[in-house]
Amino acid sequence: MIATPQFKSAPLSSLTLVAECLKEAKSEAGIMDLLEGSGQRRQHKAIVVEWSVEKVGDFVRSVGKSAAWDNHASIFMENGIDGAVLVNLIMEYIVDDMGINRMFARTLHAAIRRL
């Protein structure tokens, strides 16, 4: 017979652990640092899906430092790109339909894939 471990209190679910990390994180970069090595990407993606259009705009602005990123964020917001759409964007849509320069689109697409 296999012994079952006994917990003094109920173990935290993965989603609960992510929620606790998010409460303590002060920046988006901090969240990614916390999640990068912890195997919690799936749960983080579930949180990204809930992002508002404004939160997606903030994310796009955070990808780069040049003024062009403000413009790209505006394009995303004008097109109503929220978290659910963001995680499913393909490169061709970013370039062809949104009119973002391919160089910026590659950088942005890579950042989206890291979410």
From TrEMBL:
It comes from Lotharella oceanica. Signal peptide: none annotated. Residues 51-106 form the SAM domain. SUPFAM superfamilies: SAM/Pointed domain (SSF47769). Pfam families: SAM_2 (PF07647). This is SAM domain-containing protein.
